[in-house]
Amino acid sequence: MTGTTDTPEQPSKTVDDTPGGITHRAREFAATQLPLVVAGLLLLAALGAGVTYATHVSPGEQTESEVVGTWSDAGQFDHAATVQRDTEVFANGTELDDRSTYFTRASPELNVEYAYRHRATKPAAVRTNLSLVVRSTDGDDVLWETTERLDRTSSDALAPGERQNVTATVNVSRVRDRIRRIETDLGAAAGEPSIRVVAVTDATVTVADETVDRNREDALTITTDGGTYDVTSEGGSWSDDVTHQRSVPAEYGPLRSLGGPALALGAIAGLVGLGWAHHTGRLGVDPQRRRRRAVRREREEFDDWITAGRLPDDLGGRTTVETESLEGLVDVAIDSDRRVVEDPSTGLFAVLDGDVAYTFDPPGTDLVPVEDSEHVSESDAFDETEPADDGAEPSDPEVTDINDLLGDDFDVEPPPSADE
Q1: Are residues 156 and 226 in the same domain?
Q2: Which ranges constitute the DSSP H helices of 141-253?
């Protein structure tokens, strides 16, 4: 066969795909699956009611922190050394304070003072221990260590802003000699030796009727290098908010606050509407419309065997044999090695075989593509009456002259045009 034009691979949108058709399919689904739809709406109503109850009636509690006060403290080292012999640059008894470097021969003893203070609404119980820690380290590893208590002080009621001081004197020359003795006893000068004055402070204070404990450690480091020693200190302030945990009603966002009632009311409204539609018979299933949809599905399934064309009036006087389904008509076309011709202007399907025309006339006109019936209303689309003949020739670019489909054995005159 030559000169044929197949229909597009994707069938055109039909009238039944319009909003009205979609609404009808929804009604049909509700009618055929009524128990399932009712169960789904009941489930949604129960879910919405549960969310509403949990949100507005019994929201539960959540824990939040409330700042009830602030407590801060600070630790600071001060240091000084007294010159113990006359030198050309320093006289005996000269006080050298808060220097980064001291001379070991001129002032071998370092006087250390550690001061602790705090700020709160009430006095604090404070205890400070001052110790001398001598050790040798290799990176993060402590190779050896000795600890000697230097001094301690305590106060049961240290007022806010008041200083608590603890003092000690470190003879750097003697400590350096002790390091040498330890290395001699160990038989090796391993690691990096260091001298530290460590202040450990324990403080307890009541803030907003809540007892708060604080432990802090500050250090002053002495590093010897030949005839000098360097001093660096670690300290600083610390502050923290004192909080109370309290339980308050849980709060939710607008999505849950409004979504729960909306879901419950929507489901209940759906149940009422469904009951009303069922009672008034509006959920009835239209057998014709269901049949038309079945035909449309068949049309898509057998698209490879169907060609659009214009059929002659009265099928050229041929004997007409009507088939019960489009599938049956396709079987005839396969057996007779013919094509199924679909006339878009009438919706008729036919197989022309000699002087016999096998036809299938689908119910309604909803198989006509939308572009050929875009001005037809939904009510007209489902009218089973024959369409009015205005004498105009359909102008479908996909339509092929029927003589091209029938071959040389048939010579069908095309219907007269509107101009003729």
Answers
A1: yes
A2: 172-186
226 lies in the same domain as 347:
no
Beta bridge mates, 79: 112
Chain mean pLDDT for the chain: 78
Is residue 294 one of the residues assigned to a domain?
A: no
DSSP secondary structure, 325-390, as one string = SHHHHHHHHHHTT--EEEETTTTEEEEEETTEEEEE--SSSTTS-GGGSTT--HHHHT--SPPP--
Instruction: Note whether 276 and 309 are within 8 A (CB).
Output: no
**Same-domain pairing of 216 and 77:** yes
Amino acid at 143: L
Range of the domain at 275: 45-60+250-279
Q: Considering its fold, how many domains does the chain have in total?
A: 3
Q: Which region holds residue 351: left if phi is over 0, alpha if psi is between -120 and 50, else beta?
A: beta
The 340-343 sheet, strands edge to edge: 306-308, 340-343, 348-353, 356-360, 319-322
Burial code (b: 16+ CB inside 10 Å, e: under 16) for 330-349 equals bbbbeeeebbbbbbbbbbbb
Residue 29 lies in a domain: no
Any idea what the CATH number is for the domain that residue 192 is in? 2.60.40
Alpha-carbon separation of residue 281 from 27, 69, 275 (angstroms): 11, 71, 10
Lookup: tokens for 268: 């209940």
The answer to whether residue 204 sits within a structural domain is: yes
Q: Which of 192-201, 304-313, 365-374 has the highest mean pLDDT?
A: 192-201
Q: Are the C-beta atoms of residues 197 and 223 closer than 8 Å to each other?
A: no
| Residue with more model confidence, 198 or 301 | 198
For the segment 264-285, the average pLDDT, to the nearest whole number, is 78
In the prediction, which pLDDT does 20 show? 56
**190, 240: one domain:** yes
Model-wide pTM > 0.70: no
Q: Which two tokens stand for residue 407?
A: 């071959």
∠ at Cα 208 (206, 212), nearest 5°? Answer: 35
Q: What angle do CA 81, 83, 86 make, to 5 degrees?
A: 170
User: Could you give the CA distance from residue 361 to residue 292 in angstroms, rounded to a whole number?
Assistant: 11
The H or E element containing residue 274 is helix 254-279
